[in-house]
Amino acid sequence: MTRERMSGVDTAWLRMDSQANLMMIVGVWVFDAPLRREDLEARLRERLLVYDRFRQCVHTDPTGAWWVDDDSFDIENHLVCEQLPDPGSEHDLQKLAGRLAAEPLASNRPLWQFHLIEDYRGASALVTRIHHCIADGIALVRVMLSMSDDGQAATPRRRRTSAPPDSGHEDLAHTLMAMFEPMTRTAMKSVEKAGGSLARALEATGESGTLSGLLAIGGRVTQDALAIALMSEDSRTRLKGKPGRHKVVAWNDPLPLEEVKTVCRALGVSVNDVLLSCVAGALRRYLADKGDDTRGMEIRAMVPVNLRPANESPRLGNRFGLVPLVLPVGLANPLERLYDVRRRMDELKGGYQAPLAYALLSVVGQAPRVLQSGILDYLASKSTAVMTNVPGPAEPIRIAGKTVQRVMFWVPQSSDIGMGVSILSYRGGVQFGVMTDSKLCPEPQHIIDGFAPEFERLLLTLALLPRDLLAGGPVDPRELEHRLFGAPPPLAA
Known about the structure:
Blueprint: E1 3-5, H1 8-14, E2 24-31, H2 37-48, E3 56-61, E4 64-69, E5 79-81, H3 90-101, E6 112-120, E7 123-131, H4 137-146, H5 169-177, H6 185-193, H7 197-205, H8 211-229, E8 247-251, E9 255-256, H9 257-267, H10 271-289, E10 299-306, E11 320-327, H11 334-349, H12 353-366, H13 369-380, E12 385-391, E13 398-399, E14 402-410, E15 419-426, E16 429-437, H14 445-448, H15 451-464, H16 467-471, H17 477-485
Parallel strand pairs: 5-6, 10-12, 12-15
Antiparallel strand pairs: 1-4, 2-7, 2-14, 3-4, 6-7, 8-16, 9-16, 10-11, 13-14, 15-16
């Protein structure tokens, strides 16, 4: 029997399944016309099944986890038709997606399943479920794009006859177990494979692979390692707690991407800064409406950072690190909140928390399950949400001649984290989606409904700005408060 060893990181995702949170990436596709099952099946056979992972089961033994060909593979088990209650509203589709997000995949089959609603509001919809051990969101976006009418089928790779090396993960695991020991050249090579951040930094100083070069940046590496290990808990809110077994999903009408970019150009911030600040504002609005005191409130979200080299085509598997972003939910001023988000993101971009987090996942994927659970439970206790922001195609996707009108996805929440927020740009719009545990947040639509008003507050604020404020570059929010609202002027430096 031919088998291929699963990487340490992918093994970690495999073992993260719990009764409260299943490690599936869940997507929803809405088409503009009816999509026949036989047409979708033909496209899956042509474009999806060329990837080995979608024909392979996972086998585990005392030596680890392995990818093994499913000799009894039957696509009938993976493409199923669903029906919504008549007449099939958007709310019904959301309920179906929530139910499927809490329904385990069959462990004796390849870990994916597509659910086609052939008759949805005169057209069709598709709910996709793919286990995170197969791939991360960046890779899966590429896979799904290959399924489009304009996409290119993947070229099947020659299968290995023996287990490949684990990309230096074993060396890296030993390094992290002795985090405060001097770094070695072997560790350097391992981290390079985990994302390349440290290697690129050393190359810039001409010290690549040397102990002196490692020590030159070791202070920041140690600082970031301690930041992960010593994270304080974020604010205790109704969104934190022990989750149940039921999921609820919601989404909004897309925001115009060009309007978002207009705000970015005027205020000197990134699209990501604007969107995350709107997330913080929507959460503040939701909690305030529930009667909670939001003053000084901070909510930590784990944000995936892609670690693939810029010139590398995404492969299946997971190549990202989770970084902790603290959202300033307690800030009422939208400009102050926006610039605070930008500052915090800039701090994260300049560090090594992403490759360190990736390496930590490699460690826990090879460690005993009880140790993995303990580490993940500890990290989850410091966070409230998982948030993703993935750029999608600007042009419409067509599958079997049917245009995808809307596409959404949610990444899983690990341990006791009860909320996932997804942001996806597509066809000139920005789509927000929220998945929550029904016990902690039974009405995520109320959060979703706050995104657009928070963005409109930014637009209104921008329209009210005196032109001379924009002439010198990004606006100081304290100066804005002084000029517009009569707040005390900022203190001189």
